[in-house]
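Chapter summary example: a protein plus shikimate-3-phosphate.
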Amino acid sequence: MRISFIGFMGSGKSTCAKALASDMGYQYIDLDHCIEENEGRTVASIFYEFGEPYFREAEHKALKEILANKHHDIVIACGGGVILNELNRQMLREHTTCFFLNVQPAVLTERLFFQKENRPLIRDKNRAEMISFIEQELSRRMTFYKETGVELLLDGHEDVHTILNKVHQHLH
Ligand code: S3P
């Protein structure tokens, strides 16, 4: 089986994907990390040197490559913006069991404020700018997240085991 996690930056995709992969004996794959390996530079440096459209293209190629080449039994943590591309949404729906971690903007802001260094879209924003960016961007992306993954509505205080229980309930 191929499982993927989508959701906004800071929603806990990597944490859940790693824990689930370890539970199930699957391989954990971090999409941002694959992009960095393919491009030989960090996500932040790709954004700054080549711009977001280039990054989105590299993101699409990396996802396509994973789904074309890798064996089954993988858990993929996607970057928050993967669903902006229609083909990515289609691939995730058709070739993975996809979960959308839906976390409130206020919780995301609190988390992200201390984890913004390698995140070019929010790195230079102060708290007020971040809140308004997250609210706007999340609402712009919401339909895409919802049409791609099984929604797990989270209040942000659940521990990873509680979230994985919800995932397992859906898988069985
Ligand atoms: C992005 C999310 C990031 C990374 C890039 C763009 C986005 O991944 O792919 O900075 O557009 O939401 P995380 O969601 O893992 O932070």
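Key point: Strands lie at 2-6, 27-30, 74-77, 97-103, 150-154.
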